[in-house]
Amino acid sequence: MELWNTTLENSFFLIGILQDSKYPGLICATITFLYLVAVTSNGLLLLLIAMDKRLHVPMYFLLSQLSLMDLLLTTVISPKTLMDYLHGKSTISFSGCGFQMFLLLTIGGAEDILLAFMAYDRYVAIQHPLNYMVFMRPKVCWSMVATNWLLASMNSLVHTIYTMNFPFCGTREIRHLLCEIPPLLKLACADTTKYQFMVYSMGVAFLLIPLSVILVSYTLVLTAVFHMPSTQGRQKALLTCSSHLTVVGLYYGAAVLMYVLPSAYHSPHQDNIISVFYTIITPALNPLIYSLRNKDVLGALKKVLGKGLSVPKL
């Protein structure tokens, strides 16, 4: 096979869901709509949390971080996908591919760990309500955020450097919407067996360890919730927990299929759908899941809208 030099002049061709579809225009319009929903809803949620003092508590601080990550994640993918479709070409430079991979792994990994911290936050709030602001004081919350980004960026940097150092030969077509490890390794003309096992092992550790923390936290939380004497308190706790568990299911379901499922079970079409789901669909759904059923967020929204619509008396 022909070996091609990995210089800055080299480019990959992304053959994603738009190129493989019979109705690319419809899919492009759908992606545009979902991106606008994601930007608007996540941006609005960030604004409400920043403006309303009632939302200046650890739970909503962590939720603002989730919205920020979702906003960044979809922005890494959607605008480029749409511009490539409009220009009639879908190329990405070698350095651009590496940078995109680094950003995706960093943001995705940070969100993975953040969801575990959010589960811990709910555990403390329900099991230790009197000491909640002690366990979740600002210093602890900021340490959680720093840990998210630090661990995720270190993991991402190692994987990006290792992946992009493989020699690539023959076709430069990545049969995928974006630059991710599994489809990119298919272009390598060196033995990637050991590295694929490393990716699998790191995927298991990075995904299943936080997932285990979430499951343990919510087992304890739900046990405490069902023993609450107050029906109203029980319903409020279940509502908050169900929103978080829905987000956890959406994120981890797609991530496990992409990075834990053995490569023998992957197909380009399946991988494209999974990537669209967790980089475009999920960021649009997450803020809606949290806000539409949350009285505090809806109250803050009504307060902001009320101020905007109020007419000063003469």
Describe this structure in words.
With about 325 residues, this protein is mostly helical. The protein is built from eleven helices and five strands. The chain has helices at about 15-20, 25-50, 60-85, 95-125, 130-135, 140-165, 180-185, 195-225, 230-260, 270-290, 295-310, and strands at about 5, 10-15, 90-95, 170, 175. A three-stranded mixed beta sheet has the order 3-2-5. It has a two-stranded antiparallel sheet with strand order 1-4. α3 crosses α10. It is globular, with a radius of gyration of 21 Å. Mean pLDDT is about 85; it is low at about 5-10.
Task: For this entry, give a set of tags.
mainly alpha, 3-stranded mixed sheet, two-stranded antiparallel sheet, 314 residues, 11 helices, globular
In terms of topology, how is this protein built?
Elements (H helix, E strand, L loop, with lengths): L2 E2 L6 E4 L2 H4 L3 H28 L6 H30 L3 E3 H34 L4 H4 L2 H27 L3 E2 L3 E2 L6 H5 L7 H33 L5 H29 L8 H24 L3 H15 L5
Parallel strand pairs: 2-5
Antiparallel strand pairs: 1-4, 2-3
Helix pairs in contact: 2-3, 2-10, 3-4, 3-10, 4-6, 4-8, 4-9, 8-9, 9-10
Oligomerization state of this entry? single chain
The strand order across the widest sheet is 3-2-5
Order of helices and strands: EEHHHEHHHEEHHHHH
Q: What is the molecular shape? A: globular
Beta-strand content bin: under 5%
Main sheet makeup: 3 strands, mixed
- The N- to C-terminal Cα distance equals 80 Å
Radius of gyration: 21 Å
If you average the pLDDT, what whole number results? Answer: 84
Q: What's the number of helices?
A: 11
- The computed structural class is mainly alpha
> Could you list the spans in which at least 5 consecutive residues all have pLDDT below 50?
4-8
Helix content: over 70%
Number of strands: 5
